[in-house]
Amino acid sequence: TNTPAATQPAAGHVAVRQTLQFLDRDPLAGDTSNPDGWIATTSVAVGLRRDLSLTLDVPVEYAVPRGGGPDRDAGVGDLALTLKYRPVQIDLNPLDSIRLAVFGGVEIPSMDAGFSSESWDPFLGVVFTTIRGRHGFNQSLSWTFNTSHERRSNRAGDGPEDAFRHDTSYLYRLSPESYGPDTEAATYLTLELNGLHERNGDSEVLLGPGILY
């Protein structure tokens, strides 16, 4: 859900993904500048070549101040434009694969007051993916260069400092036990570890289970 993978649409194909996340501010922090809220992100990925893709992420944020007050607000957060290139793809059989991809791009300011950092922030990263039988594994490392010194938010990754991200995910295929000519879908259990560390020492690490269909 939150970890990149060294996969992408085939050349000439477009993949659209919609995610919805709820953020719960730490009630002990006493920080009213970071209300609870929802983030709905639309991702559009275009396969440029077999090993190259371009993705645009557009987040729409809906803030809900703690305490249920009347002040609610919605806006568009910073967009992200990502170019991903996969130099390594070793297919061991029709299903099992080892892949390595590098990616880079820029976070584009939406200029929506209260939701945009109003800075162009480039990022670079690498991701390793392997599929072996009923098991899958992804490991991603990336660095974001923050070009603004404005502190618009205390949420991880939104401060004025450069940020290092590490994302790990493990998947286990529950069904089918093996693929056949009539297989149309598969169900996986997932476990993710997502970490973000800003250069000023601020850190956030999330551990999350999930189901992928």
A few lines on this structure:
It contains no helices and eleven strands. The chain is mainly β.
List the helices and strands and how they pair.
Blueprint: E1 14-23, E2 36-49, E3 52-64, E4 73-76, E5 79-91, E6 97-108, E7 121-132, E8 135-144, E9 163-175, E10 187-198, E11 203-212
Antiparallel strand pairs: 1-2, 2-3, 3-4, 3-5, 5-6, 6-7, 7-8, 8-9, 9-10, 10-11
Could you describe the 3D structure shown?
The protein is mostly beta strands. It has no helices and eleven strands. It has strands at 14-23, 36-49, 52-64, 73-76, 79-91, 97-108, 121-132, 135-144, 163-175, 187-198, 203-212. Strands 1, 2, 3, 4, 5, 6, 7, 8, 9, 10 and 11 form an eleven-stranded antiparallel β-sheet that branches. Strand 3 (52-64) and strand 4 (73-76) form a beta hairpin. The protein starts with 13 loop residues before the first strand and ends with a strand. The model has no long low-confidence stretch (mean pLDDT 88).
Structural class, from secondary structure content? mainly beta
Mean pLDDT: 88
Give helix % range. Answer: under 10%
- Mind telling me the C-alpha Rg? 19 Å
State the low-pLDDT regions, or none: none
Overall morphology: globular
Total strands? 11
N-to-C span? 11 Å
The arrangement of helices and strands along the chain is: EEEEEEEEEEE
Sheet having the most strands: 11 strands, antiparallel
Descriptive key words:
eleven-stranded antiparallel sheet; 11 strands; mainly beta
